[in-house]
Amino acid sequence: MNAPALCDIPVTIENGQREVFCGLTGIVWLHRKMQDAFFLVVGSRTCAHLLQSAAGVMIFSEPRFATAIMEEKDLAGLADANEELDRIVHRLLERRPDISTLFLVGSCPSEVIKLDLAKAAQRLGVAHQGRVRVLSYSGSGIETTFTEGEDTCLEAMVEAAPYTDAKQLMIVGTLADVVEDQFIRLFDQSGITEAAESVTFFPPRRAKDLPAIGPNTQFLLAQPFLNATRRALIGRKAQHIVAKFPLGVEGTSHWFRAAKDHYNAPDDAFDQALEAPKARATQALQHYKSQLNGKTVWFMPDSQLELPLARFLNEECGMSVLEIGVPYLDKQTMAPELSGASGQDNVVEGQDVDLQLERLRKARPDLTVCGLGLANPLEGEGLTTKWAIELVFSPIQGFEQAGDLAELFARPLNRKQRLAV
Q1: What end-to-end distance do the CA atoms of the chain give, in Å?
Q2: pTM, 2 dp
Q3: Which of 273, 291, 313 is at the close of a domain?
Q4: For residues 103 and 69, is the Cβ–Cβ distance under 8 A?
């Protein structure tokens, strides 16, 4: 049977009360990836408490993020917020000479008072020229979901990247170092690196090593929530290699094959390089398939990982997907995932949380993937839940992580079974 065309996939659009995490949360994994970058949130004490809690940072440590706390006098316009910001940045750079890139991160409070952090970044970049690169992006929770923090951050980095005519394959999206290392080996062994001439990762492990971008840059998305970043790269004349996302055996195979086909890498080297990791991944999945097969799953909109995760659970684990809620849907980014969806899949873009909860309670799936704010109340109603944010924080991409990904969904079902005995 041929997969339905994009226009044939039914998508329901909802507008109403939403339940999502703040975009500032992206700093938690971004600051771990880029070892020489610093993220300065211009926000409130609530912003500071959120980051401290989400990152689990102890009070005596020196993380690579902080909050320039806006007081009542700033919000009331009684103090010059730009002067205060300049003073804080100067003190920060004096104390932390290891910083090569400083991100000024907007929040709800800074956006409410219309503090122009783009101009502030430009001004501070001139003041500290030769010492540090200063960029800005919005991590505000107003009309966004939490993974958009990475999207807006990488979009700002694309705009700041130098130009190149060199041929290269760029992997776009924050990946754990262990996953990045695995991908590098497979690109090398499969002949893709040689065919592409070079493979780079964006963001890099060190922000000062920002890759150059140009018309001979081809890129693969490793994360499905990078819509603005994809558009910014295309604006720099880079070419998008469209593929499913590297989740599970099938998704990862499709992702690598899209690169192989684009560069006409040799079939023999490609098949040989992927044979062993695919076999290990398939074997790792077998244990969890017996636990997940035939179970029902429901995705509340949260991280933008919902569509590729639903594809993985349905195709590779045998789960029935009752509803796929997504915060927003960019059909260009999600084209391969949508083309593999069943015409029966119920895809809901946006959120009216009350209506979705009504449908959820009526369906009573075996597993509900949702945000932290809904998980405990739903558990109290007897439903089994999985925190969506854990799927963003965990290394789940690639062949070697396929079994770990399945285990993340099997674990809450096993816990419920043990407690019921």
Answers
A1: 43
A2: 0.92
A3: 273
A4: no
